[in-house]
Specification:
- The protein has helices spanning 24-51, 58-85, 94-127, 132-135, 138-164, 181-185, 193-227, 231-260, 268-292, 295-304; strands at 11-14, 91-93, 173-174.
- It is mainly α.
- The protein has a three-stranded mixed beta sheet.
- α1 (24-51) packs antiparallel against α2, α3 runs parallel beside α7 and α8 packs antiparallel against α9 (268-292).
- The longest helix is centred in the last third of the chain and has 35 residues, at 193-227.
């Protein structure tokens, strides 16, 4: 009976990214350009991998999946953020917030799992090259990709169901520029104990678990590379995993800082800047990192964009 006396929140007010209105126009243009770069760059990578047979390898199969995840992750946050940058009242509906929360968290989890699978792919390629074709066959790669997407989606869906059982009766100010679990749970007027337990388990399994597995893979890779006698052999081996290692370093450095930093209010602005890094900057850089030093990717992109220079 008490539940019926509550007024259910139908929309949330976003605090936004910046407190100074005169900066909104500049940052709208900047973020619109970066968002366009994310969509264009990652779409080019996907199309290049699909149309160019030399890129039909396990590594590029997972890179195409990563590019798709980056598009989903950025698209779940940026359109609404851009809209709020030019609106006086920065709001998002309850349903829109839940949808954003689901797409963002599922893509974030899927990306963590993909990076781990890609580190395993590099481990097999460098440490067990004679068994690579067998251990990373087409069937195994498809199963790994399906499992990664399924785990990311199901895990996020479970947490969304736990959020939907909560009461939101005010206040409705989200102290961020998009919906995240911690900021949403802080607004609930019912117990969030179960939600916090599930979030903790997800952090342990997804963040720490994948970080440890990735670290283990690269530890074995480094040991194997150091055993190679010729300097050219070492350079060739390191080149095959350098792009992925750079992406992993970029991604984990921002996410670990975001979720392990103290939650005091004076760090909120820094937290927003780091969130921009892993929702916008990293997805922008990923296709550049994977294409700049790869001749085959450049050849494939020139097929799509014949006006590009050699």
């Amino acid at each position: 009976m008490e539940h019926s006396n509550h007024t259910r929140v139908i929309e949330f007010i976003m605090q936004g990214l910046f407190d100074h209105p005169h900066h909104q126009g500049f940052f709208f243009g900047l973020f619109l350009c970066l968002y366009t770069a994310v969509i264009t760059g990652n779409s080019l990578i996907i199309v290049a991998i699909v149309i160019h047979p030399p890129l039909h390898t396990p590594m590029y199969f997972f890179i195409a999946n990563l590019a798709l995840v980056d598009i989903l992750c950025t698209s779940s946050v940026l359109p609404i953020m851009l809209e709020n940058l030019i609106r006086e009242k920065k709001t998002i509906s309850f349903g829109g917030c839940i949808t954003q929360l689901f797409v963002f968290t599922s893509s974030l989890a899927t990306e963590l799992l993909l990076l781990t699978v890609m580190s395993y792919d590099r481990y097999v390629a460098i440490c067990h090259p004679l068994h690579y074709v067998k251990l990373m066959s087409k069937e195994i790669c498809i199963r790994l990709a399906v499992s990664v997407w399924a785990v990311g989606t199901i895990g996020s869906f479970v947490n969304i169901l736990l959020v939907l059982r909560l009461d939101f009766c005010g206040p409705n100010l989200i102290q961020h520029f998009f919906c995240e679990f911690p900021t949403i749970l802080a607004l609930s007027c019912s117990s969030t104990h179960l939600n916090e337990i599930m979030m903790f388990l997800a952090d342990i399994f997804l963040a720490m678990g994948n970080f440890l597995l990735t670290t283990m893979s690269y530890s074995f890779i480094i040991i194997t590379i150091l055993k190679i006698q010729s300097s050219k052999g070492k350079q060739r081996a390191f080149f095959t995993c350098s792009s992925h290692l750079l992406v992993v370093t970029l991604y984990y450095s921002t996410t670990i800082y975001t979720y392990l930093r103290p939650t005091s209010t004076n760090l909120q602005d820094k937290g927003k800047m780091v969130a921009i890094m892993y929702t916008l900057v990293t997805p922008t850089l990923n296709p550049v990192i994977y294409s700049l030093r790869n001749k085959e990717v450049k050849v494939a992109i020139r097929k799509i964009l014949p006006f590009t220079t050699k």
